[in-house]
Amino acid sequence: MRYAIDGILQKEGKILLIRRAGNTFHNYWALPGGIVEEGETVEEALIREMLEELGVEVKIIEILGVYSKPSRDPREHTISVVFICAYEGKPEAGDDAATFGEFPEGMVPELELAFDHKQIVRDYRIWLKKKGTFWSTKSVASY
Asked: What pTM, to 2 d.p., does this model score?
């Protein structure tokens, strides 16, 4: 089992996505993120990964939720903590990112997204209106 973080990097009604360079979901759009390393907190991992993948500094606004369905990552069971963040700096693709794009939040669910990121973005759009947190088995209908 692995532990990961993902960031919803928002600015002026847009979300920053990367196009994956790795083998898994190659060339799909995805939220930026990565694996939590031994000895670091999820917050430290988020800050490090955003610098490595996009060269931006983030300010954590809120935790969106925890996503833990065993099938969310085909490589192995990966639990991800997802943060909503503001960011500073000019993004540059690095590390696992082939490129990046800034998309209006309403357009993102129409893209072909890696992992369970389409569900995460749907939850984020609900969060924008109602706040609250999400997790893998929480029914959106009951929210």
From this structure: 0.90
3-state secondary structure the chain: CEEEEEEEEEECCEEEEEEECCCCCCCCEECCEEECCCCCCHHHHHHHHHHHHHCCEEEEEEEEEEECCCCCCCCCCEEEEEEEEEEECCCCCCCCEEEEEEEECCCHHHCCECCCHHHHHHHHHHHHHHCCCEECCCCHHHC
Cα separation, 10 vs 31, in Å, equals 11
* Domains, the chain: 2-142 (3.90.79.10)
Separation of alpha carbons 131 and 28, rounded Å: 28
Q: What is the pLDDT of residue 137?
A: 67
As a whole number of angstroms, the distance between CA 96 and CA 98 comes to 7
d(CA 100, CA 137): 30
